[in-house]
Amino acid sequence: MTKKNQSTSTAKAKIFNYALVSCLSASKSIVSLLILLIYCSINSIAQAQDERLVVSYYANGQELSIFGKKTSQGYRFNGHATKIINLATLNWPPYIGEELCNKGWVFQFTVALLASKGYQVNINFYPWARAVKLVEQGRIDVLFPEYFIEKTAPSDHYPKKTRRELLSLSNKFPGGGLALLQRKGSDFNLDKGLSVLKGRIIGVVRGYQNTPEFDAMMDAKVFSVVEAVDEWQLIELLTSKRVEFIVGDPKVFTFTINDSPLTPKQKQQLLNKIESVKPSLDYKPLYFAVSKKSPQAEQVMKDINIAIAQFKKSGETERLIQLGAQCPDVTLPLSL
After folding, report:
1. d(CA 79, CA 111)
2. 143-168 pLDDT per residue, tens
3. Taking a C-beta distance cutoff of 8 angstroms, is the pair 100, 327 a contact?
4. How many CB atoms lie within 10 A of CB 38?
5. 284 falls in which pLDDT band (50, 70, 90)?
6. Which of 127, 200, 258, 296 could form a disulfide with 332 if both were Cys (CB 3.0 to 4.6 A apart)?
7. Averaged over 105-111, what is the pLDDT?
């Protein structure tokens, strides 16, 4: 449940309480009272279900379930554990998102990994740039899901430091593609390499890593950059012709459009306006980035890497990916 939904639930509860008192003092109608009581009960049950979550995974042939709940800071699992880890992430469907079925497979995977090593897991959702900043500052232990960070990549928050001076990367786990997208109808391609991007205007999400060559060209201002807060804003930049290209995971762009409040016809029309530039830029595995300022950085990194290896060997990683793909909000019919 989001903060907006929590506020709405609180407001509804106050209205119901007032209505209940009014009903009792004024009409004393048994029918009205019963209707109110039933409605309040259903609302309370729904709210409780929204605030509680469960992540299940297999270890040594046994299914284990980890229970969690929504807190004022985010989502907490394995609350009785004495080892506590705090993580920062973003809404990045179909991989992870607060409104996704089971919060997305990367969310489930992360909780299962860390719970398997005995941690209390606290996951907080932020805009990506803020998530990066909080972990680089050491205010939160782990950032995820992260792309590979080159050793020379500069920090946006510590001008005299590189990101790898502030963060350590775990072993990789499955990710997705990375490509440029353009308005449909252009004959532009990358057959001659990224040098053809010189002088172009490209939309990027602030704080995202892309590829080493692309990011180096961006830092050297070989092409102009317009920063966005998320993929939806990138799509708006592209379709309004404020940029020539946008960069990101095509699956994320597709999901963003399909999950928008547009009608099915409007979604298809929007998808028909954009296309991926060939060839794609890269396949990007994902990582956990551990803050070097975290007092438990070394042990956390060790535990994460062991768990990643164990889940891969047992087939649990692939099972969680497949389980996530079966969610109705992920298996959407429209695609680029």
Report:
1. 12
2. 999 999 999 999 999 989 999 999 99
3. yes
4. 10
5. very high
6. 258
7. 98
| Closest C-alpha to 42, from 69, 63, 12 | 12
CB 169 within 8 A of CB 289: yes
C-alpha neighbours within 13 Å on the C-beta side of residue 168: 17
Q: Does the reported pTM lie above 0.85? A: no
Confidence of residue 113 (pLDDT cuts 50, 70, 90): very high
**To which residue do tokens 């782990």 refer?**
142
Strand partners, 96: 92
| Omega of the bond leading into 145 within 30 degrees of 0 (cis) | yes
* Residues 22-40: tens digit of each pLDDT: 444 444 556 554 554 444 4
Q: Are 311 and 113 in contact (CB under 8 A)?
A: yes
CA–CA gap between residue 39 and residue 45 (Å, rounded): 10
> Is residue 171 within 8 Å of residue 94, measured between CB atoms?
no
Record the tokens describing residue 128, joined without a space. Answer: 């990506």
Beta bridge partners of 245: 182, 202
Which pLDDT value is given to residue 150?
A: 92
| Angle at which helices 250-258 and 264-271 cross, to 10° | 150
Q: Which residues of 275-307 are buried (b: 16+ CB within 10 A; e: fewer)?
A: bebeeebbebebbbbbbbebeebeebbebbeeb
Helix (H, G, I), strand (E, B) or coil at 259: coil
